[in-house]
Design goal:
single chain; 447 residues; mainly beta; six-stranded antiparallel β-sheet; five-stranded antiparallel β-sheet; 1 helix; 40% strand; globular
């Protein structure tokens, strides 16, 4: 296809799309690849093939492209592919964009652009406004996945995989009706829970938290009403927030508890655990949010839900802006000690971009200690993903994997840090012959 350029800030700099699908083998490595780590790291993100025109907003628009790093026998290779959705195939046949941006008028496309997970032998590219697309290990698109006809037309982009039960838990939302659906897939991939829940107002539920007994949902007061003139959502802090505690065995909406809390917004959760009648959730926290421009405070907080007193406390952990929090997934839903985030670390002469950070931080969630890996000038990073060292035993025995982007360069790198000492020099840096744009979420899939 013919490359194009845009002056839209969501389509330039680290967010500028790429236009080729590549297979690069025997990549050069600075440092040494970790021993015993074999598998594939896949990351999803919006990458429009055709110029979307005015109104494009990251991350709500752009068909998903999967970028993958394969590690095998001490060697590294790279592959990228668009998720070949029905709508993208139609646009390819027409040679132009046919579908409108997310908050524009219909028609809209299934973009399959937010996350990619493996569960019960399936690899799914996720988009919370529609059904997932299934891919194979080579990134070939196999088709729409509807859970054997049981999914309610949409699925969350942020399911949580319970490391003990291997259940995949998620909450889907409908911005028109305000209906939520609690979804649970068993370890074999069977959808055995699909529970409709009427929310107090229509709002995005981009991510959830889990404990052994609950799925935790924060309903923030970014309220959607598509009859409005202009942006369909308005920040209404006077409503406060609502916490939905969904029993993991729930079969009806009547089993869900709603608890009132202070107003805030969040995209992602870091982790949650349940202890002595209290649920603690660590997350990147915004003091407000809108779909338009405007300053907002972004910090790391701990939300404490007292399930006996039915109240919510909000505690500041760090006032530095951060996002894309991850932990060692083997500790998901339990009292994990360490969390890893993309950290805002402004540098003179550089304009920060959404979804691209200048540093990676490791937080000790018990002591509050923070360690930081600062990237060189002009280099940014997205979500750091923890990959366990198969030889390790401690929670932080492992590595952080992430793509980096260097301003004004046509090449890229894949960064591997020691999770125990992230401030140190990288364990390895894989040289990529072509840059990888800033994206959204990814996961490590061991062989």
């Amino acid at each position: 296809m013919t490359p194009w350029q845009s002056t839209n800030s969501a389509l330039s700099g680290s967010l500028a799309p790429v236009f080729d699908e590549r297979d690069d083998i025997a990549l050069a490595v600075d440092g040494e690849l970790p021993q015993g780590i074999q598998g594939v790291f896949m990351r999803n993100g919006p990458n429009p093939m055709f110029d979307p025109g005015p109104g494009y907003t990251y991350p709500f628009d752009g068909t998903g492209m999967i970028h993958a790093i394969y590690l095998n026998g001490g060697h590294a290779s790279y592959r990228n592919r668009w998720v070949r959705t029905r709508e993208l195939n139609e646009e390819c046949a027409a040679g132009r964009r046919l579908y409108n941006v997310g908050f524009g008028p219909p028609p809209h496309a299934n973009l399959a652009n937010t996350n990619i997970v493996r569960h019960a032998g399936r690899i799914l590219a996720l988009y919370e406004g529609d059904l997932p697309y299934e891919l194979d290990a080579g990134l070939n698109t196999l088709g729409v996945f509807d859970g054997q006809g049981k999914l309610p037309g949409v699925m969350s982009a942020h399911p949580k995989l319970d490391p003990a039960t291997l259940e995949l838990l998620s909450v889907a939302y409908d911005l028109e009706t305000g209906t939520l659906h609690y979804l649970r897939a068993t370890s074999t991939g069977e959808l055995d829970r699909c529970v409709p829940i009427a929310a107090p107002w229509p709002a995005m539920v981009h991510d959830i938290a889990i404990t052994p007994h609950h799925v935790v949902v924060f309903l923030c007061p970014l309220v959607f009403d598509f009859s409005r003139q202009g942006p369909p959502a308005d920040w209404e802090p006077e409503r406060g927030s609502r916490v939905a505690l969904i029993p993991r065995e729930a079969r009806s909406a009547g089993q869900v508890r709603w608890i009132e809390g202070p107003a805030f917004f969040h995209w992602h959760t870091l982790n949650a655990f349940e202890e002595n009648g209290r649920i603690e959730v660590s997350l990147p926290w915004y003091d407000a949010f809108s779909l338009g421009p405007g300053p907002r405070r972004l910090e790391l907080h701990r939300i404490v839900i007292d399930t006996e007193a039915n109240n919510v406390e909000d505690h500041l952990l760090d006032d530095r802006a951060c996002e894309f929090g991850r932990i060692n997934d083997a500790y998901l839903g339990s009292k994990a000690r360490f969390g890893y985030v993309g950290l805002r670390d402004p540098r003179p002469g550089e304009t920060p971009q959404p979804g691209a950070f200048e540093a990676i931080a490791r937080y000790d969630l018990q002591t509050g200690e923070k360690r930081v890996h600062r990237l060189p000038p002009g280099v940014t990073v997205g979500e750091p993903v923890f990959v366990a060292d198969p030889r390790g035993k401690a929670e932080d025995d492992g590595f952080l994997f992430a793509f980096t982007h260097e301003a004004h360069s046509d090449t890229g790198r894949f960064l591997i840090l020691d999770a125990r000492d992230i401030a140190a020099e990288p364990v390895a840096s894989i040289r990529l012959p072509r840059r990888v744009p800033a994206g959204l979420h990814g996961n490590w899939m061991p062989l």
